[in-house]
Amino acid sequence: MKNSMKTAVLIPCLNEEEAITNVVRDFAAQLPGADIYVYDNGSTDRTIEVARAAGAIVSYESRKGKGNVVSRMFADIDADIYVLVDGDDTYDATAAPEMVEKLLNENLDMVVGIRDHKDEDEAYRSGHQTGNAVFNKFLGVIFEKTFTDIFSGYRIFSKRFVKTFPCLSRGFEIEMEMSIHSIAARLPVAEVVTTYGKRPEGSHSKLNTYRDGMRILMTMVHLFRHISPLKFYAGVAGLLALFSFCLGLPVITEWMQTGLVPKLPTAVLAASVGIISCLFFAIGIILNSVSRGHMEMRRLVYLNFPSMAACRRDECENVEKE
């Protein structure tokens, strides 16, 4: 692949002494001229020394969590094309040139590597597969669009994506935040099927299925509330209105039949819940206007950066001048 645009390979790392050498060397071989960055997140083994010996540019992030590391890398590193990959040697480096070409040729902002684990069942635990499928479906329900693999750690980005992505997550929910950001901002994205392999001996996953799964779920709900407040608060208002109706219907029926309200506390509760329901709906309307303003500002900042097509045109013009 002949490409003079600056490419950076970003590898967040924690205790990957056994795997990091292969990751650095494989991506350096597949993307000649790319800068390979390894950001260590407090490793207690020889990850730093091994990565540096393999030819990587090593930096550090003291705040624990993959999201914090990715946030630091996105802020520190300047490039035209960004390749984000885990340091556990489970992703196929040979797919990187195809993914970069797809980003360039189709003028995209993100290309996601879908993990193909058919022949490597042990590499991708069944619990993680099930959780991934559930979250993919849930994402499609609340945002009306989804990805095949929202938790893939293998992604290619344009500069305009990286420099306009807020990156608020601290842990493994970072991949989901990237996916939701692309949906909310209506960014052009694509997916490419890639091989997903086993970790090398001595390398262990840092993902806790239940703890991190709950954090991911709460982050998804938080982002839904932030990005689509009208839908979120209207949904809560609808549930409260239904509860109020169920409480108040017997009271109203009895009043119409007898002219009395013997269950006064129930009537007061039903009326109060109904008022709260109206307040939630009003909050949704107000916050929806605020959210729209934020999205417009984010879009304007995004448009300040050139697209991949514009970068490629500039590259061709520079080559012709030379």
Automatic annotation (TrEMBL):
Q: Which UniProt keywords apply?
A: Membrane, Transferase, Transmembrane, Transmembrane helix
GO MF annotation list? transferase activity
Ranges for the Glycosyltransferase 2-like domain? 9-162
Per the UniProt entry, the signal peptide is none
TM stretches of this protein: 232-252, 264-290
Cited Pfam families: Glycos_transf_2
Q: What's the protein here called?
A: Putative glycosyl transferase
Q: What organism, scientifically named, is this protein from?
A: Maridesulfovibrio hydrothermalis AM13 = DSM 14728
Q: What is the lineage of its organism?
A: Bacteria, Pseudomonadati, Thermodesulfobacteriota, Desulfovibrionia, Desulfovibrionales
